[in-house]
Amino acid sequence: MLRSAVFFLLLAHYSLVQAQSAGVFPQQYFRNPLGVPIELSANFGEVRKDHFHMGLDIRTRQRVNLPVYAAAEGYISRISIQRYGYGKAIYIQHPEGYITVYGHLNGFYDTLDRYIVQKQYKDEQWEQDFSLPAGLFPVSKGQFIALSGNTGSSGGPHLHFEIRDTRTGNNLNPLLFGMGVADNIAPVLQGLYWYDRRYSTYQAGAKRIPFTGAKGSYTVNGGDTVRLGSSKVSFAVRAEDRTNSSPFLFGIYEASLWMDDSLRCDFQINNFSYPDSRYVNGSIDYNVFLQSGQGIQHLSQLPGNRLSVYNTDDARGVIPFTDTLPHTVRMVLRDVAGNSTVVQFVVRYDPALEENLFFTMNSVAFPPGQARQLKEQQVDASFSELAFYDMVPFVLSGQPAGSWPQASGAAGLHNATVPVHDNYTVQLPVKPEMAAYADQLLMQLESGRYKLIQKAKPAAAGWYKGSFNRLGTVQLIADTVAPTIATYGWKNGQTFTNQANLHIRCNDNNGEVQHFRALLDGQWLLFTHSTSDYIYTFDGHCGIGPHTLTVSVQDVAGNTTTKEFQFTKKAPTNGGNKRRK
What we know:
The chain folds into 4 domains: 138 residues, Distorted Sandwich (Glucose Permease (Domain IIA)); 166 residues, Immunoglobulins (Immunoglobulin-like, Sandwich), CATH 2.60.40.10; 116 residues, Chondroitinase Ac, Chain A, domain 3 (Sandwich), CATH 2.60.220.30; 86 residues, Immunoglobulins (Immunoglobulin-like, Sandwich), CATH 2.60.40. Helices cover 8% and strands 41% of the residues. It contains 4 helices and 47 strands. The longest helix has 21 residues. It comes from Filimonas zeae.
């Protein structure tokens, strides 16, 4: 009883400190950026592929073109238009030291839209990323700035909303600013695990601990003692959070691990940068996430994980056992609203359950925090000190080059189940008979279900290099096939009357085309991009009468295709194609 009382006193003090820390953020400064009540489809800190989710995804009732409003006064400081990422996005600088971001927009308010289109035509470039001076586009709190959409890397209509710290550039958890999201539901525990930390987490996988419970309180099945077959362990959880107004499951905000009333590890997902967000791959069981999409989050800090959200003991949350006595473990999960989930159980080290693991004969130890070079006759790979989060029993394999278009042997750099934090450089020798295709060589990486291709760059004599941030099988291939260009939904020579746009589809044998350029009667024409589709919406740049559309595309290897199309534009019969007011 005394030990339990001490724990809860410590927990209460700890919660107060955290609440005071959260309270430094103004609670009435930002308004809802939409005109409908906030319903989330994703929160800050959700585990995503290669990153934590860095803002809120706010539902737009499965529709586009809902009005978007400035969350506070300030000025539009940056515009970004990308094929992927946040698509069309607005950045607003606020005088209190914050920046808000509004992503996946369908369009901008008219004055801003005209400015952007003029710049696109001046630059002859659809994709944009530029800063704006303070006095050019000032905004007041609640001012209409854009229409919501589904542009960029978006799986459905919604508004992505972020708050950033101007001074540090870090993203902050918007829910800490009192965004009016009702929540009295505690996080839900979905999985409980331990790891044998005598070994790398890439050797010893997660071991499940069965449990029962609900509504914020959980116990190990039957209240049994968990016997651990290791003298050095760490723990992990799989958990989700919920809010009152949404059916979606969200990432947890905070998790802490206590043993015998001593805090061993805690993390709060609330304040870090976009580059550091890639440390998500060292904060989870990467292999499990890769295979199933389930985010098992470590309650320890892996040796190569430098993410700042952790508060750990000297052992970084890894618990050594020097006896076989029972010890009490408590895990506390919290959301931003303060709802807590607690799981408590007893553990005991049992030497009889130990299982010894060994590196395979063909593996080489790649420790975290050390730069490494792997140089063999047919491959040269260099990794930085940031590359790995835990010890990797690295295995190099290889296969000889096959027939066309293979221009080198295939080098297997371990496998896709181990993450790499930053880019590494790999070099391969080209087959002598393929040297004539030096200007059309690509380096291809096959990593699980992903295939990445880039232009191979010359290195040492007869060698070519590339740079990737995933492990897998790399190989040089030759590409002499030019991309294709085709009309979509219309035919060459067609007459347009009430149609809203021109649609062109471009494809390449090795993925998407690298460059696209369209000229209307010799003048650059603005096409938006979406995967292989390119769309021009009729406007004042295309007058009544016959026209020649010239389209040129280039692939990664540099192969180019150019096509000409003829069409005639007639005046609309129903007053269509008017610009939005």
